[in-house]
Amino acid sequence: MTAADTPQEQKDRIPPGQTLTQGFPVLHYGSVPYYRDMSKWDLRIFGLVDHEVQLSYKQFMALPRREFRNDIHCVTTWSKLDNVWEGVAVATVMEQVKLLPEASHVMLHAEHGWSTNLPLDDFLRETTFFGIKHNGELLTPEHGYPVRMVVPHLYFWKSAKWLRGIEFMSKDKPGFWERNGYHMYGDPFKEQRYDFD
Q1: Model confidence at 78, in pLDDT bands (50, 70, 90)?
Q2: Is 141 inside any structural domain?
Q3: Per-residue pLDDT at 196
Q4: Which ranges carry the Oxidoreductase molybdopterin-binding domain (predicted)?
């Protein structure tokens, strides 16, 4: 809770069906990738762009960073308020590419074939960013080291851990969890958890 928040203001920041946590729970499907040689890591930007871009770990880490503050909400019903991140703004990465006009959606690709979808406008929001540090510490492998997407206005499964690719598309299509019953959009304040809700 920030110094300016009253108990009611803090309550208003917690979506329906969520419980406040002081911890940072670890939830994911499959095994955690551990990187032994960062020269083999890159971030691929492809799809509806005028040319494909591959940023090496060294190139990505050299991009300008800034601080971001937000609340995060997991589909499994926990919320964590007042997170402080260090990361790279989406606008900074987008300076590397030129989108084709038909681009309307994004697929985020992560290790082990994991993926999740976003409308382009949500990806381009000023509040969406590439997270590198959380509360002053580098992300742990369990939380997405070296880079995770952070999309705080949607349920946290949309904030892909272990990010490796950004694909721009002309129409929406489901990612891994969306193919397995999760909502295509995932607004926590509308409780868009599952497609059968």
Answers
A1: very high
A2: yes
A3: 61
A4: 30-177
Q: What is the pTM of this model?
A: 0.92
Query: Could you tell me if residue 14 is inside a domain?
Result: no
Does residue 56 belong to any structural domain of this protein?
yes
Q: What is the CATH number of the domain that holds 149?
A: 3.90.420.10
* Mean pLDDT (the chain, rounded): 93
Average pLDDT over residues 35-40: 92
pLDDT at 3: 52
Give Cα 112 to chain centroid, integer Å: 16
Q: Is residue 65 part of a domain?
A: yes
Residue in this structure with the two tokens 């926590």, named with its chain if needed: 188
Give per-residue burial for 37-51: e unless 16+ CB within 10 Å, then b.
eeeebbbebbbbbee
Over residues 103-118, mean pLDDT: 96
Helix (H), strand (E), coil (C) string for 15-42: CCCCEECCCCCCCCCCCCCCCCCHHHCE
Structural domain of 49: 42-190
Amino acid symbol at 150:
V
Give the side-chain half-sphere CA count within 13 A for 135: 10
From the list 160, 167, 151, the residue with the least C-alpha distance to 46 is: 167
DSSP string, 145-188: TT-EEE-TTS-GGGS-SSEEEEEEESS----HHHHTTB-SS--G
User: How are beta strands 105-110 and 115-119 bridged, if at all?
Assistant: antiparallel
Number of structural domains in the chain:
1
